[in-house]
Amino acid sequence: MAKFGVLLRGINVGGSNKVSMADLRTLLDGLGFTNVKTLLQSGNAVFDAPKGTPAQLATQIEQALEDRYGRVIGCVVVTRADLDRIVAANPLAGIADKPSYQLVTFLNGEPDAKLFTADDTTAYAPEVVLAGDREIHSWHPNGQANTKLTPGWWKKRLPGLVATARNWNTVLKLRDLLD
């Protein structure tokens, strides 16, 4: 059995796209996953799976969510190794002094470097945004409510990818849950 984390995109945010964590646990159990645990109310879960790659598991979970809720809910599945790599590489460690203002946007594939670096991100200062392997690191010192990096900015640079962000505190908690 391998351990995985699943991150659902855009649920329970601002009162829309409701998915209860009890329903999510039941859904994951029904797919044959074991040791299912959820974290917070924003679509974070960990589980053990007997087989499958993160991409295969994400597709399986997305289909089950669509069958259950009648709408597409994007997922990104990660491993403990993914989270260990992200935490160890933390390119914002020297500047991000509020973990809740530091985000990791998890992706279901690699970002197109040409699209991502199409403009000078220093124009968004004091915000910082850096591409990783299958994630984007961003620092929002004035908070996310005041960001210049709008959903349109992200959509233009990450076409066709599922992208879902978690703050640094949540990243660390998810990693710990995968122990």
Automatic annotation (TrEMBL):
Q: Which InterPro entries match?
A: DUF1697
The membrane-spanning stretches of this chain are: none
What Gene3D superfamilies does the record tag this protein with?
SP0830-like domains
Q: Which domain of life is it from?
A: Bacteria
Q: Which Pfam families match?
A: DUF1697
UniProt cross-references to PANTHER family, sorted A to Z = BLL4334 PROTEIN, DUF1697 DOMAIN-CONTAINING PROTEIN
Name of protein? DUF1697 domain-containing protein
